[in-house]
Amino acid sequence: MEAAMGLMRRMPPKHSETALSALLSLLPHHSSDLLSQVDQPLQILCDLECGKEFILCEYNRDADSYRSPWSNKYHPQLEDGPYPSPELRKLEIEANEVFAIYRDQYYEGGISSVYMWEDDNEGFVACFLIKKDGSKTAQGRRGYLEEGAWDAIHVIEVGPEEEGNAHYCLTSTIMLSLTTDNESSGTFSLSGSIRRQMNMDLSTEEGHLCNMGKMIEEMEGKLRNSLDQVYFGKTKEMVCTLRPPSEVVMRLPDS
């Protein structure tokens, strides 16, 4: 299992689904652990009742059905699937509305979904998901990318409220892949993932949703900076070292 997880951490996100399928065939007795621990590129399904798309993941799946955050129904239909309590469902609806605004402001489009469920410690867990297709044939407004995808997964464990405070544990994963194929940039492919965790004890005076939103906003800022410095910064440094731009190539004087 440790070797399998190490392999998946080194696998480009665009190939993770194929690699996971192969591992499930090789290690069927570890299938539940692999499916719960390996993050895969997010998939989309349309809720025909509401006419809205929602994101599929392990956190809204039961058997082969997925619960829509819009209608609160499983697709395909499932009779005995788990549902959040009425109070948590109300918070889930509000979170989806607020997170859609956040998505449009920061991502200029894309698809978002929020799912919530009770845990065994008298608290609850919330999963915030964003998928943005940045290819020029989809939602890429600048038209530079032949293929491009940004998948963000934020899972927040919220502890029981004590004396007006609650403990929040946020685990965030970003999966990025992009490919260019044009005359100006040539053919180039880059993909990778990054995961970070944050723990905070916060007052619940302004509500759980406000606290979770601030944590996600702060974490996404840190992850974007890390991706910019590590993936793009290091790649640019290596390319410029191997193939220096003509204007900065030093010419030796004639002897």
TrEMBL record:
Cellular localisation: Cytoplasm, Cytoskeleton
Question: Key word Cytoplasm present in the record?
Answer: yes
Q: Note the InterPro entries from the entry.
A: CapZ_alpha/beta, CapZ_alpha/beta_2, CAPZB, CAPZB_N, F-actin_capping_bsu_CS
Identify the PROSITE patterns for this entry.
Answer: F_ACTIN_CAPPING_BETA (PS00231)
The record ties this protein, via SUPFAM superfamilies, to:
Subunits of heterodimeric actin filament capping protein Capz
Record-linked Gene3D superfamilies:
1.20.58.570, F-actin capping protein, beta subunit
| Superkingdom of the source species | Eukaryota
Q: What family does the entry list?
A: Belongs to the F-actin-capping protein beta subunit family.
| Known partners and oligomeric status | Heterodimer of an alpha and a beta subunit.
Protein name listed in UniProt: F-actin-capping protein subunit beta
What is the species listed in this Swiss-Prot or TrEMBL entry? Xanthoceras sorbifolium
List the top taxonomic levels of the source.
Eukaryota, Viridiplantae, Streptophyta, Embryophyta, Tracheophyta
